[in-house]
Write a structure and sequence with these properties.
The structure holds two protein chains of two kinds. Chain A is an all-alpha fold. Chain A is 43% helix and 0% strand. Chain A is rod-shaped, with a radius of gyration of 27 Å. Chain B is an all-alpha fold. Chain B has two domains: 68 residues, no CATH class; 72 residues, no CATH class. Chain B is elongated and about 75 Å long. The chains are: A mainly alpha, B mainly alpha. At the A-B interface, helix 1, helix 3, helix 4, helix 5 and helix 6 of A face helix 2, helix 3, helix 4 and helix 5 of B.
Chain lengths: 227, 159
């Protein structure tokens, strides 16, 4: 099953809180100690049963910033946006220094480690299959059987070798250590965002300055790394 | 003629930049977009408050990570950097499945032909440098039905 942001972010309760409940204001209005009016922008996404959710979001982003963010989105996008904000806020509350970035870095290391193991396993498979197929070919030659294709390791008796996955990184080879390294500059690579695999976070000195690009997405030029 | 330069934050906020400005070490004047992104998502007040609670030697790291998250959020207002976590988890799941499949195939080959050589996959994979370990394996952010980030659920016996 493909993991998408939608599946990553699930709401525990699919019901949305009433925006004009006489019984309980939404968690946001309760936290802000104000009347929860009909049409409250927070009410559908911050039910009164989850006060900590809004508390975290408010602590990190602030109510007005969240309002601005939500107002810039279409209504069907707001639920996921709020949940991703809540996720980030909680990560930041738990780890004030690295927040979600720590999680990303950890996952990168795990993916890298697993990829190494996978490469080793694939190498084993090829090696075993090839050496065994060669032994078979030698045996067949000894028996004057010329039907085997001795020049090709493909005569592997029906053994399927999975294709070696290839990372799609372009300039991030030097980032394969995969974790934060103290840098003398404050730049972050933008390539992380657009690469579907191996999106290493480049924290070392070879990063490009995302803010020195002309705007919009896409690849960046290698810029000066200034502090 | 005396000259003084403001940091990018104070210039953006149109105020004087004092000598002990909390933003100036992390928001240089030559990189205005850095503060713009961070201010747009978090707000200057929140940033200042967060920085003050962090030890000085970690503040640069914190600002870098905040900038990264803010940039992700500006680029993708719906999912921000959570999308990256999702992609990484998908990659992890895929790699895990592939490894299981490959190991099954190796077992099949060995079963049919018997072992002839030592496998590479028994070699020790280099452990990560412990200095990089920020103890994130203890992170369990799930509170509201969000996909837990607890690494132990990733499924491959990762430590």
């Amino acid at each position: 099953m493909e993991t998408t942001p939608q599946t990553l972010i699930k709401i525990s309760d699919t019901k949305m809180a009433s925006s004009s409940s006489y019984n309980s204001p939404c968690a946001a209005c309760k936290f802000l100690r104000r009347k929860c009016m009909p049409g409250c922008i927070f009410a559908p996404y911050f039910p009164p049963e989850e006060p900590q959710k809004f508390a975290n979001v408010h602590k990190i982003f602030g109510a007005s910033n969240v309002t601005k963010l939500l107002n810039d989105l279409l209504p069907h996008q707001r639920e996921d946006a709020v949940n991703s904000l809540a996720y980030e806020a909680e990560a930041r509350v738990r780890d004030p220094v690295y927040g979600c970035v720590g999680a990303i870095s950890y996952l990168q290391r795990q993916v890298h480690k697993l990829q190494k193991e996978l490469d080793a396993a694939n190498a084993d498979l090829i090696r075993f299959a090839y050496s065994n197929s060669n032994n078979n070919n030698n045996n067949n030659d000894n028996n004057n059987d010329r039907n085997q294709n001795s020049s090709s390791p493909a005569s592997m008796q029906g053994i399927i070798i999975p294709p070696l996955p290839s990372p799609t990184t372009t300039t991030t080879d030097h980032f394969v250590t995969g974790f934060y390294q103290p840098s003398d500059d404050n730049v972050i690579s933008h390539q992380l965002i657009h690469q579907p695999s191996y999106p290493f976070i480049p924290w070392n000195n070879d990063m490009v300055n995302v803010d020195q690009r002309g705007g919009g997405g896409g690849h960046l030029d290698q810029g000066n790394n200034n502090i | 003629m005396p000259t003084y330069s403001r940091c990018a934050a104070c210039k953006y906020l149109r105020k004087k930049c004092p000598s002990d400005c909390i933003f100036s070490p992390y928001f240089p004047l030559n990189n205005p977009r850095r503060f713009e992104n961070v201010h747009k998502i978090y707000g200057a007040g929140n940033i200042a408050r967060m920085i003050q609670k962090i030890p000085v030697h970690l503040r640069e790291h914190a600002i870098d990570s905040l900038h990264f998250e803010a940039h992700c959020r500006v680029e993708d207002p719906v999912y921000g950097c959570v999308k990256i976590i999702s992609q990484l988890q998908a990659e992890l799941n895929w790699a895990q499945n592939q490894l299981v499949k490959t190991q099954a195939e190796i077992a099949l080959v060995l079963n049919i032909y018997g072992p002839k050589e030592e496998p590479f996959s028994d070699l020790q994979v280099n452990e990560e440098d412990d200095s990089c370990d920020i103890g994130y394996h203890n992170f369990q952010p799930n509170n509201y039905g969000l996909q837990p980030f607890d690494p132990s659920v990733l499924g491959y016996g990762l430590s």
